[in-house]
Amino acid sequence: MMNTEDLAGLLETLCPMFLLVDDTGHIKQAGPTLQKLRPNAPLVGQSFLDVFELIRPRTVTTVPALMSMAGAKLNLKFHDEPRTALKGLVAPLPNGGGAVINLSFGISILDAVRDYALTSADFSGTDLAIELLYLVEAKSAAMEASRSLNLRLQGAMLAAEEQAYTDTLTGLKNRRAMDYMLAHLVSTNSAFALMHLDLDFFKSVNDRLGHAAGDYVLQQAAHIMVEETRSDDTVARVGGDEFVIIFKGMTREETLTAIADRLIARLNEPMTFQRQSCRISASIGTALSIHFDVPNAAGILHAADLALYQAKRDGRSCHCLYSTLSSAQP
C-alpha cells in the first residue's frame, strides 16, 4: 500500500497544486506551485479553512462538511491578499485518513500568472492551462508584432506625407504645402503676410557654371531664408528660382520690410561654388491678408506677384509692398 510520502511525491508530479490534509483538516503537504503562491507563509501545518474561504458551496464551514464533498466542485479564495480565486476538488483518502484536495486557477489563471510570475514549469504537463498560456503568449507576441508593424506603417505614411510636401533639392516646403497652408489660413480667417521672392540673375549662373552650381545656389538661398524666418513660418520653393514665405500672424509692414531687406542683403553676397563666384540678388513682393475685405489664396498670391513685378521694374534687388501700389485695392 502506498505510504504518505510516496503519495505526496506522486502528487507533486501530477498535481503541483494539490493539498494533502489530515482528518482534522490540517495541511500535511502542499504542492510546489501552491506553496509558490505564499512563499513567505508555509502552508504545511495550517488549517485548510484558516487559509481558504469557501465561496461555494457556502454550507461548507467545518472539516467534516469538507470531507463529505467528495467529487464536488469547490470555489474558494485565499483569506489574505492577493485573494486569488481558485477551484478545487476533494478526494477523501481511505479509512478516514484525510483527503487530497486538488486546486486550479480556472478562469483566473491569467491574473495568477501575472501576480505570481508563474511559468509552464509550475503546471502539470497535461494541464490544459499550459495550452491556454501558450495561446496567450502567442496572442501577445502577435499583438506586439502588429503594434510594431502599425508603428512602422504610420512612420512610413508620415514620411511619405512629408515627402509629398517637401522640395527634395532644398528641403523647403513645396507648392502643394504652400497651397495647403494658404487654404488653412484663409479658412480660419487668420491674419498673415505672403512674401514672393524671385532670385535675380539665377539663369546666368546656370548658363555659365552649370546646373550643379545652380542647385548649390538654390540650396544656399533656401538656407538663408530659413535662418531669417521663424520656425513656424512657411518657406516654400514654388518654382525654379521662385520662393514664397508665409508669415502667420505678422501684419506690421515695417517688420516685413526689415526681413526683406535682410534677405536681399544676404542674397547679394557672393556664393562660391568650386572656387567660382556665383552672384545673384533677390526681388521681393509682399501682400498682407488684412488689406483684403474677403481674403482668398489666389487673390493674395496675385497681389504679391504684382508687388514682385514692381520690384523687378524698380531695378531688382529690392522689396515692394502691395499696399504701396497705386492700383492696390483693399
TrEMBL record:
PANTHER family linked: DIGUANYLATE CYCLASE DGCT-RELATED
SUPFAM superfamilies (alphabetical): Nucleotide cyclase (SSF55073)
Residues in GGDEF domain copies: 190-324
Protein's name in the database: GGDEF domain-containing protein
Highest rank taxon of the organism: Bacteria
Species of the source: Ruegeria haliotis
